[in-house]
Each structure stands twice: as C-alpha cells, then as structure tokens.
Predict the structure.
Amino acid sequence: SLRRTGRGRHRTSPAEVQVCSGSRTRMRASATFATVLAAALASASAFAPTRWTSSNTVRRISPSMATLSPPPMGGSVKGGDDGGLMAAVSKVDATKVTTLLESGIEMDEATTNAAFWAVVKAVDRAEAQDQPLSADVPKMLHHIFDADLRHLLSREKQTTNVTCMKPALEGEEGAQERMNYIFDDSTHKDIKLAEGRRCEDGHCCDACSRNVFPTFATESESNFDTFPELASFTFNDLETVAAGTIIQFVRLVERVRRTIAHEYGLPLSTLLPLQAYSRKYVAGTTQQGGGGGEGDDVILHTDESTHAGYHYSSVLYLNTQGEDFEGGNFVFNDPVEEEEDADRETVQDRRAREAAEAVARFKAAEEGLEVEGEGADHEEFEDVNTMAEEMRRAGRKLTPFHPSRGAAVIFSSGWENMHEVDKITSGTRYAGEQNANEMK
C-alpha cells in the first residue's frame, strides 16, 4: 500500500484511501501521492493494478516550504445561483457537491478551480497536522476530473483520422529491420508497413487518429509562476515538490486519460498511464539517455516501436514557440502519396536526386578529384548539411505543429504516426509527455 513513512507514520482510518501497487514493485509515498494516484487511476468500479515504479521512498518536505497560493480567478456559476455549490467545494464537502451535481447543477471552470485549490489546501493542512486525509478529497478530485473533461469538450479540437499501420515483416526479417534502425535511425521511415495495429502487451481499438487541442490546459493551469516544478516533473523525484504541483500534474494526466477514452471509445478503467513526465529541450545540447533528458531535437520514431506497451500518446506544451524558443516543431512524418503518373519524376524525387548529385560533387572536390557539371566549386556547397537533410526527407510529407503553451497533441502510437521534433535553434522548450496502455 502507499503510505507515508518515517516520523509520524500515516495512520489508517476508515476514511483513508489505500492503494495497492503492482506485483513487480511496491512503492511507499506520502499521503498526497497515495491519494492523488488513488483518485486518478481508480475507475468508478475497480482500481486497475498500477505500474508506476520508484526505487526510493518519497519523502515530503515541510508544507510551509512547499505550499502554493492559488492565482486570482474570475467567473461565476451558470445562472448566478449555484445552490451552495461554491460553498460546498470550498469546504471539500464531497457529499454535498455530489447531491448538487446530481440535481443538475454544473461546475463551471471557476468553481472547478476553486475545488482544486480547496483540495490542495486540505492536503497541505493534513500533512502539516500529520492527520489522515478525508475520503472527501479523492471524491472531490473525481468531480474535478469529470468537470475538466466536460470543459475540454467545449473547446476547439482538430482531428485527422488516419489508417492504422504496423510493420509488414515479422520473424527474422522484421527483427533485421529493427536492428537496422538501431544502427541507423534514418532507416525508420523505410520500414515496410501494412494496415492494422500490432498492439502488443494489451488490446487496442481499430481507430487511429491525430488530435490537436489548441487549449488543452488554460494559462493558469500551465503557469510556471504558480506551479514552478511543472517545468521538470517526474514521479521518481517528489521530495521538494509542492503538493499543489503534484496534484495539478496528475490532474493533467487524468485529463489526457479521459480524453483518450472519449476519443477512441474505450472504457476508462482499461486505460493505464505507463509513463508521464515533463521535460525540457535545450538549444545546443544533445539528449543523454531516455525520456526526461535534455536535448535540442528528437529523431524520427514510432512510440509503439520504442515500447510495445505504448498504444496512445500525448504531448502537452508548457511554453510557446517564438516567445520562449525558436525551432522545435513537433512533426508528423508520412510517406508522400504516389502520383497517378508513375513515370513522371516527383518533386521530392527530383530534389533528392539533385541533392545526392550535389553531395557527390562536393565530396569529389574535397578529395581533389576532377568534377564535372555545374557548381563544382565549394561556394555552392557551403551548406552541405542542408542538402543531406533534403536527402533524408525526400519522399516524405511533413506536417509540423507549432507549440504554444497549453496546447496538446494526442494520437495513436502506431506506425501511422511516425514523428520527430525539429532542432531547437535558441531557448528552451518545455513539454509534458504521456504514453498509455489499453489493458486486455
């Protein structure tokens, strides 16, 4: 079970929420972490075993050092008469809130945010007094999560349906293709594909798509002044993270999970977040290791190829291109559709041929060999890297998305959605990433 450890052991009471971890790893954590995970990952009927893992006991620092103050909020409850809803959420009176919601009253965004900060205050108070959390806290979080999805569905969304794709080759041939990718990541785009989903380590629906939400999170929900630790967040390092940031991050994770369930028609109880973190991409650096490391670009890849259990993916942007950084587009990379006249050279093929010829002439000139054709001098080849890039992207259709704070991209994780991140030329790009698995 997830419990607070050390001095002032977290006591069990009938109102507490206890969460059982998966059989592989048992994780101990503070009251905050246990309650948030219980509320976020428990379905209405049953709690699915979680795969969150951590090698260290999570220790919480003094609430006085890590509490957050809510930003000013405006707005009002629809109709101007909330029947006492605002008062109930301010007191974290989940029973009263449930009764009012069942009567038809809705939580608008201002009331939902008030409920969030009331929960944060309740968690901070419980930790300061070393008291167990009331069951009203996870119940209130569920009301917040429900309201968040309803608000999101009223905002703009751009959906592109795509044909699900998977590697055509299996067995030794497929293994050889995967080995080629390990030694040369540029070969990933050349993998032979067939329609359908591979969907190992779980179960997937047969729908694939790309969904862009220009306002997945509001400015106040992704504000580094309010949630400073949101810039670089991992569940493996919560020692100095304020309770408000932890709960806010899980709130966003749960919003993604419910959005995936809604978009793909999946039972919420079958969706398990396998990985969720926020990270930074810094211009002029090279990523070391896996997710969470700094770097100024991300190579072309498929999420399900990276991890067989990744079935649905999301990226939430925490700052804005053109204001905080330059470059860093998120790019879907697809094969160009063949032209009807197969004998006619496509624009992409011509550009690839010319780039290849130019690079060959450049290399010959470097070696002092006689070069035929136009442009044999070095002045034409000052940017040979650009020509090499033309070769790499020849025959591909690139669909860039320009990041802005609060926007999100949610998509199926198969080979129909190969993607990459362009090099960041200046500044630092922040983003939260999540991969989910639909369990059998």
